[in-house]
Amino acid sequence: MMGPGMMHGMMGSYGAGAPWWMWLMMILQWLVPLAIIWLLFRWLHGRGGCCGHDHGGSHGHGGSHGHGTAGDPLTVLKTRYARGEISPEEYQRVKSDLEK
């Protein structure tokens, strides 16, 4: 015989369906990995792309100051030196080659 207190299921719900916290876990199961992928993409894009190439746009650094565009070799050299990708000696050597 089933009384009013026996209608309560094992997982905390009445009748069919899942409790609210199970729905929340199912949603988070998809949202958390998608958020991680999105953040990873943003982080890689901010570092010049996943393959190390500049995919266009100055993003507020570099830019054109009357010396050419963001794709100008001297601007690219200055940007790489500012990021610490090349040594001061290599910077001076390549700069003198470009200015010839």
What does the average pLDDT come to?
75
Question: Largest sheet at a glance?
Answer: none
Structural class: mainly alpha
DSSP, total strands: 0
The topology string of helices and strands comes to HHH
State the helix count: 3
- Give the percentage of residues in beta strands: under 5%
Account of the protein in words:
This protein has 100 residues and is mainly alpha-helical. It is 48% helix and 0% strand. The chain has three helices and no strands. The radius of gyration is 28 Å and the shape is rod-shaped. The termini are far apart.
Summarize this structure as a short list of keywords or feature phrases:
single chain; 100 residues; mainly alpha; 48% helix
Set out the fold topology.
Blueprint: H1 20-46, H2 73-82, H3 88-98
Question: What's the quick description here?
Answer:
With 100 residues, the protein is mainly α. The chain is built from 3 helices and no strands.
